[in-house]
Write a structure and sequence with these properties.
Keywords: Signal. This protein is of the alpha+beta class. About 20% of the residues lie in helices and about 40% in strands.
Length: about 325
């Protein structure tokens, strides 16, 4: 069943919940089940008078997580960078610890490295990264040269691999997947619509639940996506997002944090990644404050890489 139909039924269900307040008090959750599709509302959510259909629709169309990273293209900020590459046994074999500062002026941005320490073979003789995990990190938070003419506009922006080919194209595709989970990324072989969890086909393989609790002192709605427990073996083969939990501010519906697990192994790509992202607000912009990555991945013809990294961003400014 298509998501609009689910939303329509949720509208009806919301009215029914209001009429059955006595019954609600006797239960911890109130599931809405349509065929194999389930949206579970925790009791505290029902009592909060959340407009469930509007909330679900907002999540479906949400681009704010992706935009938060694009906001970094137009802001100055400082960053503490901690990258650790590991061998198959989890032993650290290369590290990078640095403090960097991005400055902006007249529509351009550039980076200053204030301190840097590295071990192992993190860099080659020309100070280029030996690891594409580190290259992916650098593509998000480092600017090797002065970059001009960028914007943080998301509306109307489409993912494109224009100008990229080979390994560079594959790395860019995976970066989009890791930092915009739940949205379709065109051109990734064998994955296709499997990651578009709100679209027909993929949505029916997942359960959605909504709860309400604090995240580091901030009251939030918690939207959780997990694969259905009754999936067949062939259906499980189509799962890429093993879990995704997002905290939304109850007043603004801004994303406060998101944790997610992604894994897949076929064709060009193989990855098993856990990520945690915490957001903050600078003026009117939502921006990432802390990003933690722990995982392994490889691209065809390249060795598998395993590592962890943490980015801590602060001192945001706009000039």
């Amino acid at each position: 069943m298509k998501l609009p139909a689910i939303i329509s039924l949720l509208c009806i269900s919301s009215v029914a919940f209001a009429q059955k307040d006595t019954a609600v008090g006797k239960r911890d959750t109130l599931p809405v089940v349509i065929g194999k599709k389930a949206v579970t509302l925790k009791e505290v959510v029902v009592r909060s008078n959340l407009n469930v259909p509007a909330f679900i629709d907002r999540i479906k169309e949400d681009t704010s997580f992706y935009k938060a990273f694009r906001n970094l293209k137009v802001l100055g900020y400082s960053a503490l960078n901690d990258i650790r590459m590991q061998d198959k046994s989890g032993n650290v074999k290369a590290t990078l610890n640095s403090k960097t500062k991005q400055e902006t002026r007249n529509g351009c941005r550039w980076m200053i490295t204030e301190s840097e320490q590295s071990t192992g073979d993190m860099f080659d003789k020309k100070h280029n990264f030996n690891y594409y995990t580190a290259e992916m990190y650098a593509g998000l938070f480092f600017a090797k040269d002065t970059i001009c003419g960028e914007s943080n506009i998301v509306k109307g922006t489409s993912f494109t691999m224009e100008g990229k080919s080979g390994i560079e194209k594959h790395k860019e595709q995976l970066k989009m997947l890791f930092f915009n989970p739940g949205k379709k990324i065109p051109g990734i072989p064998f994955i296709g619509n499997k990651i578009a969890i709100f679209e027909e086909g993929a949505a029916e393989r997942y359960d959605f639940s909504i709860d309400m609790d604090q995240f580091k002192g901030e009251m939030c709605y918690i939207f959780k996506v997990t694969p259905r427990e009754d999936l067949t073996r062939s259906e499980k083969d189509n799962i890429v997002i093993n879990e995704m939990t997002t905290w939304f501010n109850i007043e603004t519906w801004d994303i406060v944090a998101r944790n997610y697990d992604l894994s897949y192994g076929a064709g060009v790509y193989s990855f098993d990644v856990h990520m945690e992202v915490e957001m903050t607000k600078f003026e009117d912009l939502v921006v990432p404050k802390v990003l933690r990555y722990n995982g392994s991945w490889n691209v065809i013809f390249k060795k598998r890489e395993q590592g962890v990294f943490t980015a801590t961003l602060f001192d945001f400014n706009r000039r």
